[in-house]
Every structure is written in C-alpha cells, then in structure tokens.
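Lab channel / #folding
Pinned by the channel admin:
"Please post every new chain as: sequence first, then the structure tokens as a reply. Keep commentary short and put observations after the output so the thread stays searchable."

First post following the new format, from NK:
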Amino acid sequence: ISMQSIRDLNAGTLDVAIIGLPSRTAGLTVEHILDEPMVVGMSVRHPAAKRRRLTLSNLARDNLYWFDRKQNPAYHEHCERVFARLRFKPARMIEPADYHILLSLVEDGRGIALIPRSLQAVKRSGIVYKELVEGEQLGIGVALAYQAGELSEMVAKFVAFLKERVGTENPQDVLIVSKDHP
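Reply from TO:
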C-alpha cells in the first residue's frame, strides 16, 4: 500500500497519504507521526499461546507468514537485517493479501504472523496476540507524505488535524485525501 501511495503522490493523483516507514520517499516531504511495534499473532492452540511475551527465538520452528518484498522493499530489507542479526530463520510462507484470510490461516495453526500492534483490534476467537521482545526493532513507522513545496489549504488543514489527533485516534483509521475527492 505504501509503495502505491508513494507512486500516486509522485504522479500527482494523491495530495497526501499515510505511509509506513521505512519506505523509499525521495522527493516527498515525510512527517513521522508514530511508531507501531510488531506483535505475534498465533493460534490459541499454539504451545506458546499462554506466554505473555515471546522472543523471535521462541518462534524459530514456526512457519511464518511473511509479506512479499515488492510490497515495501525498504521495510522488507530492514526486517531482513533484524532477522539476520538475531539469526531468526523460520520457514516462510507468502502472506495472503487479505488480512482476514491471513487470520483464518493463523487460527487454523498453519503458521504465525508478525503484525503491527494496532491490528490487534481485529478480534478472532481462535487467535491470540503476544508481545514480542523484538517488536520495537521490527516496528513500522507511520508517517504523512506529500509533495514538497506549497500545500493546498485543504491538505495543510488535514495534515494539521491528523498531527493534532494522532494521540487520541486509532492508528488503524487511515485517511487518504485525493485530488479527485475534495
């Protein structure tokens, strides 16, 4: 999603977007607004499901649903460096594009998923979310991105509004302002 939003910003079809960091954002103004640590999503039947906190080494024998590098190369490379430093080499499976399908597979015990903490709000009876010791290291930044230079009044107001509200709103409530929708 971040890569497509960045392409749309550069093409002029979006005025402002909320993106994940790290991302390749050359030529854009980027304002960091918050950090989202990663947590582990797993089946309630997983042997570690009763533990409060987990480390990546606790999960080394699990199948990991992981996103395709093409979705966000900069963030993917960041995570790969963290995995290499910690010697975390689980078997990997392609993460489905649909979050609800991912949760169904995790619920069935087919693998685990590392997800941003705010997505814990999506509840499923067969899934538990566990704090990950390395969650901050793997965390994704959330930022506003827009073309450098003079902002339209509408975009400037939106940027100011979002920056003011970031502590009181749910980070999963993402808004994108488009030139086609004033």
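NK: DSSP finds four helices and ten strands in the chain.
TO: also worth noting, Residues 168-182 have pLDDT under 50 and may be disordered.
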